[in-house]
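Researcher: Sequence of DNA polymerase III subunit gamma/tau follows. Predict its structure.
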Amino acid sequence: MSDIHQVLARKYRPQLFSEVVEQHTAVHALENAIRENRVGSAYLFFGPRGVGKTTIARILAKRINCENPKDAEPCDACESCLSIQKGYSMDVIEIDAASNRKIDDIRDLREKVKFRPIRGTKKVYIIDEVHMLTTEAFNALLKTLEEPPDHVVFVLATTELNKIPETILSRCQVFTFRKVPVTRLTRHLAEICRRENIAAEEDALFLIARKGDGSVRDSLSFLEQAVSFCDRNITSERIRELTGSFTIETFLQITSSLLDPAVGPDALIRPVVQIFDEGGDLERFVWEYMDFLRTALYIRRGVADSDFLGLSGHDVIRIQEGMKDVPPARLQQLFDDMFDLKGRAHQMRIRNSYEARILIEMTLLRVHEKMHRPSLDDVIQQLNHLSRVLEGEDVSEDRIFAERPKQEPSAPRSVPQPSSVSNAGPAAVQPPISSPISPPKPQEEPVAAPNESERKVFGDAGTKDFSIENELQKRVLGTLVEPDSLPDLKGSK
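Model: Prediction complete. Tokens:
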């Protein structure tokens, strides 16, 4: 008869404090309490699913009732430890508050706590999902938690601390359990694969740990599924196929197409059409692309921590190389556009894949066209340089206007002298009369023709008055103005 298969999540469930993955705060505090014989009467473990709340509660129960303890650890070999491990101990009672949430259930519990343990020294009650209890049940539990019998220890576990009344919290020692970092989960999965003789790529294990979202139990459950799917040879390509996730190359290609003005509509929307034809989840595609843009933006700003980004080192390097020439402002703009797309899809209550495909395609085409309009920063920069030109300042070649060759100062124009007539007397000579009301006009300097850089920006039109309002309208809103609008480069004094 063949042995019954035991799933990885149960086979590798920690049986000692030293085997717990992370959760150093709770483990360290409980070990010190055991060494000093200061075990409390009520504990409350709060944290996300699958991080070890019930597991640590069982280890604590084993150590309290262990017949041959080893420092702060249970021996894990005596009858008491084995009965707790296998689930038939009469001294450790696990209660699911989701299905035993009424006041009558708590009243029954209050009657049973009076009885002393059968074999061990303490009776341990582990109440899982305690936030599911009704208000009346919580009130019935208050007095028992505050003054339980000496032989009773309560361990409450919950994933929603905000639903626990303050009166309950004040009677418990509260420990917060945190999600396990992705890199730590990856190492844990690699060690289990080594023990099970499973070949697995590091990137594949990273993807499994990332899907586990900080939960050891969820990661092991998905590893079990991956082993069956990949036939004990786990690769990152097969894991992406199993999870339905999209590759980094797909998002790099879409981003490159959006930023390239020469890319046509067919090449731009081809990845979306391919995902639709293969039955992929377009809503998930938008979310993962938003996550990619967020990651690329952090990488462009110098953040490369794998745990923070949720990517393996190889993926971080690929994004660094693919996005090295993309300004962070462009990535932020793309993220905002995708976020708006997600909001519109939710507002329109789009559920059909074909409707989602149309919305995504039209959004990508609109974003592609918008990405190549002059940005507001460019317009402001152009207007700043235009203002300098109008004020007569020199502008360097790396700006919008090329530096204009300095004009040689023109020789002062001689004042016209009265013509001398040979037969005219002194009375015929009349000096010029200057009117105090109309002063003489200053000498106007010749206006230089626009150079090549100016023609490129403003066109080859004449020298009519230039309107900053029209230029802003043309460059920001994309509307037309007078084709011969050209700034007066001579300036006004």
